[in-house]
């Protein structure tokens, strides 16, 4: 009897796992006619952020932030100044949680209701020496701390 229970359990969990995986990868409609976001939810996104996203200066702004981070590297769990820079930029009206895992920042946009989109980025440096010479090369040879 125990063998049949084991066999049933094995096949049951195998099928349940297969169904869960299929549901996780099930395609969702993305056309505007079938959109999962309604205008009310879209209106929850901070207006200031949407206005900024439509300006040509956005590219230069993002590149500037990236270059500042690259020029002033900090190793993992030591990114206090990098985190401070990111929080200063998020203070434009985007709520965030800090600290996350010591120096991490999690920003929040939207209504908080499903569907969700997550974007993840690393902000720590690697302890390497750049061989290329360019304008925005790290200002610190040992990739340790901002001065």
From TrEMBL:
One of its GO terms (biological process) is auxin metabolic process. InterPro entries: Amidohydrolase. GO terms for molecular function: IAA-Ala conjugate hydrolase activity. GO terms for cellular component: endoplasmic reticulum. It comes from the Eukaryota. PANTHER family: IAA-AMINO ACID HYDROLASE ILR1-LIKE 4-RELATED, PEPTIDASE M20 FAMILY MEMBER. This is Uncharacterized protein.
């Amino acid at each position: 009897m125990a063998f049949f229970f084991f066999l049933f359990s094995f096949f049951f969990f195998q099928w349940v796992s297969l169904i869960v995986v299929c549901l996780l990868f099930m395609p969702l409609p993305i056309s505007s006619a079938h959109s999962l976001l309604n205008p009310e939810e879209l209106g929850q996104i901070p207006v200031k952020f949407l206005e900024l996203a439509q300006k040509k200066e956005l590219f230069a702004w993002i590149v500037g932030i990236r270059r500042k981070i690259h020029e002033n590297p900090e190793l993992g769990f030591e990114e206090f100044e990098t985190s401070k820079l990111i929080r200063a930029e998020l203070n434009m009206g985007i709520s965030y949680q800090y600290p996350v895992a010591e120096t991490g920042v999690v920003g929040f946009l939207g209504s908080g209701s499903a569907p969700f989109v997550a974007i993840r980025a690393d902000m720590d440096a690697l302890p390497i020496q750049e061989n290329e010479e360019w304008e925005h090369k790290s200002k610190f040879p040992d990739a340790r701390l901002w001065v």
